[in-house]
Design a protein that fits this description.
Pfam families (chains A, B, C, D): Beta_elim_lyase
Function (chains A, B, C, D): Catalyzes the cleavage of L-allo-threonine and L-threonine to glycine and acetaldehyde.
CATH class of the largest domain in chain A: Alpha Beta
CATH architecture of the largest domain in chain A: 3-Layer(aba) Sandwich
Mean pLDDT of chain A: 95
Number of helices of chain A: 14
Order of helices and strands of chain A: HHEHEHHEHEHEHHEEHHHEEHEEH
Catalytic activity (chains A, B, C, D): L-threonine = acetaldehyde + glycine; L-allo-threonine = acetaldehyde + glycine
Distance between the termini of chain A: 15 Å
Largest interface: A-B, 51 and 51 residues
Low-confidence stretches of chain A: none
Shape of chain A: globular
Organism (chains A, B, C, D): Rhodovulum steppense
Oligomer: homotetramer
CATH topology of the largest domain in chain A: Aspartate Aminotransferase, domain 2
Family (chains A, B, C, D): Belongs to the threonine aldolase family.
Strand order of the largest sheet of chain A: 1-7-6-5-4-2-3
Number of domains of chain A: 2
Strand content of chain A: 15-25%
């Protein structure tokens, strides 16, 4: 019963097989290999973006911070949701890579940036000219940190606000595949057709060992990106092992299939929890994460049985009245099973102890 | 005939097997898994350094730049050889991670820092107090960019100069294993017993997909290192795949065996070249790289037959008188074969065309 | 009728006389002159802080940013009021000088940091360890951007919250003299006795051409400060002209007398406005700035007659119903006269046109 | 006998008078005053550059570092002479303001960059593409740190090398006036007509309290400069006091007259020293600094009598054989007198003790 995060899961067999396959003969380093070229083309095709430049890095923090550094000068600010990963979970990487830009926090339900709040925040910025940090860029996360999904129309609404102020827009797509299969649109519709300039196209949370693609729909800053990537220590010499993973991820829509499995699992878990007495959902379950509250005694049973997930916020205590609801985050991955979910639900509900669960890998 | 770099080679089967083995079940992310704990202990044991803190990153540039950032404040300088990787091949990563420190270039044969030149450079620094960049740290590379190896006594001589000025010393050990088996000493003798404070313990050039360990023999700056690593985007969520590689690398002295194979290959290649008419060695061959010059016609034959290596410096031309010597760099890896070498030597010498060569992987 | 800012005023004659006096003979540069030594001692005496280190710079932004850079590492955050000068009026200087630290915005009435809100903000920080920006430092402004003054007890309450989290506290004292004469306490009571670690001791807004002192009550980071100052281009070669100003400022309590005059003027202006029909004060007038609202027609009369002040917020319009109140900021300086104030009040009220006003200088 | 530096001198009476004159009434801050507008126009006229943007800062380090930050991205290098002020005397300010760019040191006699050496250095840069720091900008100093002066033709030769590599050129003109009157050309001929893009137009060393102008002949980066200046804490609120100084400096060619006086003094001192037995000049005396060597006993006599100047390099000792030559740097200012010089020469030569010297101020 592993719901702590989608990054605790193993990788699907196709990924390992691709790496084994890649491990033959000599190849030129630093992305100058055929697989890398093929992967870049495959992403251009998947996004219907023949002009786009595509680069691989190994962590989502690197992808986001490098992308934002190309969009926002040091003396400007990046507008993001106050619960965005770039604000809360990257130890200041955007500030570091931009050379000291600011992050301006914007509200909105379910960790989605509210377009009106964004417009107000932009309007408030730099009203005193040179004395203020300037307007830099906008970043949104899809799927969000609260498990919600922006529709293409919602993305376009954000981009319209940004465009009115002449600002570029970045999408943190650490869970892009989960958002996409949830929204039921094409990669292009979710990104550049809605106004996105740069995408962090996540692979790691959806089944890779550690590969993210940065897709620059406008190639103007491609060389700057390459220099920043190298200077940040994020250019891999044995690049083929990143490319092989990404190639397998794209092949036969594996990336979409993995995300569908994770989303389905989350939907089942969400529905199950919502049906329990005293339980409520905190956010709509639109991708692979479930945010729910239920009575403390259900948490005690689950955690005692070894179920892994986070109380959310983390500072709640298992000690106290058993009927008081505590809130939690549960994340499903490509390998979450129905058995796992059902066993977990029985635990929370107070049914008989679950049988051991086998996790594939 | 692949001598362009040791980073064009595939990884040995033990590494892939370890990754396959690691790919079962769920593990906590970000290094909070058992394999990571075991690997850190194994490195402490290998270096006889129970107090050391050990961290994994995926690139040598990240390892070096993060290490130097912990040793040198923004207003100080890092003393390095003028041909050091940190100076010539990292696109300013040390400057970026330190927040704008300077690199002071020091001379010395075979890319080894000359202790007297280092002492003079240190003495020259900060003679006008607050007006100057201050003394920060010393970094040396072992094996060097010219394929030479510092003995423990030579390392100690550098460290003595540094210590006299109260400066910490970093070792870029991208090819540490090659240096170690060449010098025939223990890891501890080559590092902290000789005065090294922080080591970039390379794995990638010696057979891993992309794993380097940073070993802080003095753990005082460990937490700072962790923050800098995260902030630099170099903390991996699925950390187990780095740890599994490093564990396999250390197991049964695989790392030393791989380096021995590369060094042996380089020795054979070096001896063969030195014996050719008109050929000379530019640096002693002490690790896995050979620097040699031979007549242009030999280069033309080799390159026509598809041999991969760099003219060094790169701006020499294959056009011109056939008997004029051109210099080159040739790097052997763990999988360089005797057949490959012999075929190459025959080509350079002008003998019969070589048979096809099979490279394992 | 100049109420736009205290930085539009000329300097008092004593300051110019001191500069004329200083302009004789040769002196060693960069602060190695007798006047500088004397000034540093005078500040130590004024603050009863014999161990303190004191440095002069020319702008408040430099003073604040250099001070914060010594207190907060790049991967941490500075807690400040959301309307603080460091947040709103320094174009990201704290982010630049710290190397990319964050500013965490805290609420509180009258631009004073609320201690409970501060405690909550600190408690929220770094709850996920290495993934988050860490706790760095606290900064408060006295007098505040809203013209309010922290009492020593209020400063101590902030410092107690900071100390409980082991955080240093900086005070932006751009209007320190105004705060001090308002609170009626000693410099020591307002600063280190209440827990302040570093003070930006302002001179410019209170009558100097451009001199601020940074007072490090704990001298441990003095050398770092000196290096950061030089590296930031803020070490003056002809330092005597800064020191001469500061010496005259301190002599015979000129600094306190100037602040008293400005505060008295603001009190008169505040009382006069409050007594007008339809007028309200937005903040208590405790230092030299008045924040008030009154009917639009009063603003139209005042601005038509050339009165200089800012509508606050700035985006209000003079066009519209005459009886609707608009809010404004009015700042008095050491040379604001009673005649000026009275003339202004008559204008706002709708009385006869004022006679020309003479401003000393 | 004050030859330590030109920054130990007082300011000429015209400067103080201008500041007294400026000290009347209220003016808008941050350069939004009439004097500032006038000064900017005056500099445009003096340089025949109606399109240029002009900004004032208070220190030469700020002028240089801000200018270079606008010309060179963080991942590139600034080519400078190895004895340039930006390399040796600014504690890494260029590295700080650029966000971590490198300085590449180039040789040349008399602290002038040698064009061929520059071309080689540029050619050597970035030969391995993304792995290397890139080519950024060139900076030269006129007059140089060795008291030599580039002619317009020599400036043009440097700029031609830079232009061939598409690099902008900055001139550190801390002693621009001294260079100009020495070369006998117009400001335009020395700068943009020869290919200079940005000039640090010094005032401080030539008689101001602390004012330098940055002249951007290409105004494209003006707004960026303004933001960097503010963010660096270098935008003065009471800007009028900078502008008043600069206005007086430009009026009636005061700046040229001051430089002529300093240059004349240096010429007299240089000729006098060169005529002494055992004395030699180390560099041609083309501006206001003299570099000469003479027997140690002459130094002992001079320093015993209180003459102020630096042994150059500084680590030479007054102890030792009296006839051994020691080298020294002597800098003349606008207020150096013939009496001072002659008294000094008599001391060095071993004549009768000098009478007291009166320095104006």
């Amino acid at each position: 019963m592993h719901f702590a995060s989608d990054n605790t899961a193993p990788v699907p067999p196709q990924i390992l097989e691709a790496m084994i396959e890649a491990n033959h003969g000599h190849t030129m380093p630093y992305g100058n290999d055929v697989t890398t070229t093929d992967v870049r083309d495959a992403i251009r095709i998947a996004f219907e973006a023949p002009e786009a430049e595509v680069y691989l890095v190994a962590t989502g923090t690197a992808a986001n911070a490098l992308a934002l550094a190309c969009l926002c000068p040091p003396w400007a600010t990046v507008y993001c949701h106050r619960n965005a990963h770039v604000e809360e979970d990257e130890c200041g990487a955007p500030e570091f890579f931009t050379g000291g830009a600011k992050l301006t926090l914007v509200g909105g339900d379910h960790a989605k940036v509210d377009p009106d709040a964004l417009a107000r925040a932009i309007g408030f910025t730099a009203r005193a000219g040179v004395h203020n940090v300037q307007r830099g860029a906008v970043t949104i996360t899809n799927a969000t940190e609260a498990g919600a999904v922006y529709s293409p129309a919602e993305v376009a609404a954000i981009c319209a606000v940004a465009r009115a102020a002449d600002l570029p827009v970045h999408m943190d797509g650490a869970r892009f595949a989960n958002a996409l299969v949830s929204a039921g649109c094409s990669p292009a519709e979710m990104t550049w057709k809605a106004g996105i300039d740069v995408l962090s196209f996540g692979g790691t949370k959806n089944g890779l060992m550690g590969v993210e693609a940065v897709v620059l729909f406008d190639p103007a800053r491609a060389w700057e990106f390459e220099l920043r990537r190298k200077r940040g220590g994020h250019l891999f010499s044995k690049h083929r092992y990143l490319s092989a993973q990404m190639a397998a991820y794209l092949k036969d829509d594996l990336w979409l299939k993995l995300a569908e499995r994770a989303n389905h699992a989350a939907a089942r878990l969400s529905a199950g929890l919502a049906a329990l007495p005293g339980a409520t959902l905190l956010h709509p379950t639109q991708a692979n994460a479930v945010f729910a509250a239920w009575p403390r005694e259900g948490h005690r049973r689950a955690q005692k049985a070894g179920a892994q997930y986070y109380l959310w916020p983390m500072d709640q205590s298992l000690e106290g009245p058993g009927d008081q609801p505590l809130s939690a985050r549960l994340v499903c991955s490509w390998c979450t099973t129905e058995d796992e979910i059902d066993a977990f639900l029985r635990l929370v509900e107070g049914g008989p102890a679950p049988a051991p669960v086998h996790v594939p890998g």
